């Protein structure tokens, strides 16, 4: 329902000449004979307006409800053609017939749906690199026989292996909108540096020594025999190290690729001693 304040505003605007349309009788009639007002009657004391909620919607704007507001800016559009003038309020356009009135404001309109963001297409190679960089490759755990915490003996075969739990495929996946790339790393070779100048390349993790083997038997796939003692080294031990080589394959977005040569290394001291034979006569 319109307030007396709004009717007064309309009356003052008419007296000041801001609006050049003279109200001579019932107005705001739309094509159906009722328009947006239930009826308007004017007398010397002012006009009484009964407002309804009709109107035709302008393009791109939605309407959920209706409420009154004193702060609603109304735009009056005079037509130069034979069409009736219109008023636009909060995106709604109203036909006024041959008259002019004060319209209620629509508050709490339906929120506009946010525009969908267009994600920039990320190259497959970039996502593949993310997947490869996310790989958490395990550090190899060095094991020997005789046990690495004890002394190796010159001339006695030393068995080397890395813990088999660290010798397994590792997989990571990188995801961006519309693209998923999976990278899988597999250990391929372990290269041992024995500390006295020799090295051994093993195709697998190495065979773990057990009591079923004779003590003097060499490792079937990853072993070494020291030729001298480590007693002359600064720490009286050689630096034993192993470098595990990993190959990575990735696939995603209809493409595949390889990243060879990732290396994870570990090292530890290893003491080697000589056993002197005692001849008894």
UniProtKB/TrEMBL annotation:
Organism of derivation: Streptomyces violaceusniger (strain Tu 4113)
Entry protein name: ATP/GTP-binding protein
Region listing for Disordered, in residue ranges: 51-90
């Amino acid at each position: 329902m319109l307030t007396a304040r709004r009717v007064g505003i309309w009356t003052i605007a008419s007296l000041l000449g801001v609006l050049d349309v003279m109200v001579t009788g019932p107005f705001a009639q739309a094509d159906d004979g009722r328009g947006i007002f239930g009826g308007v009657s004017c007398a010397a004391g002012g006009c009484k307006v009964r407002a309804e909620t009709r109107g035709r919607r302008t393009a791109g704007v939605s309407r959920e409800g209706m409420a009154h507001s004193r702060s609603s800016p109304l735009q009056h559009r005079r037509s130069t053609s034979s069409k009736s003038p219109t008023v636009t309020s909060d995106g709604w356009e109203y036909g006024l017939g041959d008259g002019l009135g004060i319209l209620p404001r629509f508050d709490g309109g339906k929120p506009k749906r946010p525009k969908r963001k267009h994600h920039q297409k990320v190259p497959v190679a970039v996502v593949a690199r993310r997947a490869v960089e996310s790989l958490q490759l395990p550090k190899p755990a060095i094991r020997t026989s005789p046990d690495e915490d004890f002394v190796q003996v010159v001339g006695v075969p030393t068995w080397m292996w890395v813990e088999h739990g660290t010798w397994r495929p590792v997989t990571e996946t990188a995801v961006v909108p519309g693209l998923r790339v999976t990278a899988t790393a597999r250990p391929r070779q372990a290269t041992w540096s024995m500390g006295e100048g020799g090295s051994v390349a093993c195709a697998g993790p190495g065979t773990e020594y057990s009591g079923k083997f004779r003590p003097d038997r060499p490792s079937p796939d990853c072993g070494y025999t020291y030729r001298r003692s480590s007693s002359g080294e600064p720490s009286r031990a050689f630096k034993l190290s192993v470098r595990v080589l990993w190959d990575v394959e990735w696939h995603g977005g209809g493409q595949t690729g390889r990243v060879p040569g990732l290396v994870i290394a570990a090292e530890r001291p290893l003491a080697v001693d000589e056993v002197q034979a005692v001849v008894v006569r």
